[in-house]
Amino acid sequence: MREENKPINDVIDHMNKIEGNVENLAKADLKKMPKPIRYFGCFIAGFFSISILLIMILKIFN
Hints:
The protein is mainly α and 62 residues long. It is built from two helices and no strands.
């Protein structure tokens, strides 16, 4: 285990093992996710980006 992911004490380490927490969650490879989930994520991110942009434009011209 890397130093930054070291549990504080044995109780937390035991609970992480019981709950099935992943040690290196930040290293998840998003390109290996199923395509429908990736497309849905891109759709949501695009929707929010376009919505924010449209709100800003409408506020300027209003």
